[in-house]
Design brief:
The structure is a single chain. Helices cover about 55% and strands about 5% of the residues. The protein is built from 16 helices and 7 strands. The strands form 2 sheets. The chain has a 5-stranded antiparallel sheet with strand order 4-6-7-3-5.
């Protein structure tokens, strides 16, 4: 027995020592940046871009704190929507739509995306370009990579950010974003920028920070590439009959986008099939007689709001895998459309 206790104590001590050594071996932020710069050079970034990009790089403890203390979801959609889509934001969205209607119409026609959804995303992401974040993106991404919990992800974003700088789309001084590195008026992560950002006015730059043609075109291009269909809307809130089989809806927490899409495929039905199951519009009238498929989603639970989601819902869930976010985009886009803007 004594031998077992001694052996256990030895193992515990060795584990404790190893943990302390691991902590002690973590490099300083300055040493980490030195290694990052060396790796960037190996990847082919020019010394000039590397030196200028990291010249004033700073560790942001606030970013680490923000990442670790993101609030738990204690909302319901009934409390969330009035805060995310208040009346003043609806009025502002309608005003911005009218102000930029010519450009929005051109972009919408080119990419096959209804302009009201572009404006809704713009308003919800950055309050129509007013709140983009004031972190130096290289500093924010370097901080999050050094923090270590998602190092591979943030290093990938860091290389993408250096590519953006090397291509000359923005200067390091003006490359501002959120604490997590989301950038510009549409809050693209750097890899999303490389995949979806567009030079909307042909000036040779993709400026999602200050150029409305680039901002709107990039958002529309994102949706287009994620299978947006401008013949469809996003979805509709519906009323369920008493005793409805709630297992016909997509589960609230599927764990990943891939699992969510699998659940969509398993549960989607035609509107006629949902009609036959007793699903109705919120006013109790019949569903549209249209040859469409839809999936049923509960942003909260079976006792909360129910929505029939059309294929465009999947495009919005690719933008942000959140029922609350997609509901807010849909709600704001509907309020932009109805009543018609004079």
């Amino acid at each position: 027995m004594l031998k077992k206790i001694i052996l256990s104590s030895t193992i515990l001590f060795a584990s404790y020592a190893a943990a302390n050594d691991a902590v002690a071996e973590k490099p300083s932020f300055e040493a980490y940046i030195k290694a990052i710069k060396a790796e960037a050079l190996q990847k082919g970034y020019t010394p000039e871009i590397i030196d200028s990009s990291f010249a004033n790089v700073t560790f942001h403890q606030r970013a680490v704190k923000a990442d670790k203390s993101q609030p738990e979801n204690v909302e319901t959609l009934d409390t969330y929507l009035p805060k995310r889509v208040p009346n003043w934001k609806i009025e502002r969205a309608r005003s911005e739509y009218k102000k930029h209607e010519k450009l929005l119409t051109e972009v919408g026609a080119k990419y096959g995306v209804q302009p009201r959804f572009i404006v809704a995303l713009w308003g919800l992401e950055t309050n129509f370009g007013k709140i983009m974040g004031n972190y130096n993106v290289i500093s924010a991404l370097s901080t999050m990579a050094y923090e270590g919990r998602r190092e591979a992800f943030f290093k990938k974003q860091l290389w993408a950010a250096l590519t953006i700088l090397q291509e000359g789309h923005i200067s390091i001084e003006n490359m501002k974003g959120s604490w997590a590195g989301a950038m510009g008026q549409n809050q693209f992560m750097p890899t999303s920028f490389l995949s979806y950002a567009v030079d909307g006015d042909g000036d040779g730059k993709k400026d999602i920070w200050g150029n409305h043609a680039d901002v709107f075109s990039s958002m529309a291009n994102y949706l287009k590439n994620e299978n947006w269909n401008d013949d469809l809307t996003w979805g509709r809130q519906v009323k369920l009959p008493e005793g409805f089989d709630t297992s016909l809806a997509i589960p609230k927490n599927t764990g990943s986008r891939a699992n969510w899409l699998k659940a969509w495929s398993r549960t989607e039905k035609t509107l006629a099939q949902w009609q036959a199951l007793g699903v109705r519009r919120t006013d109790g009238t019949n569903l549209p007689e249209a040859d469409l498929t839809a999936a049923l989603v509960f942003p909260d639970d079976a006792n909360g709001r129910a929505y029939l989601a059309y294929d465009n819902y999947k495009s919005l869930m690719h933008w942000n895998l959140s029922y609350y976010f997609v509901s807010s985009v849909g709600h704001l886009s509907d309020r932009i459309k109805f009543p018609p803007i004079d």
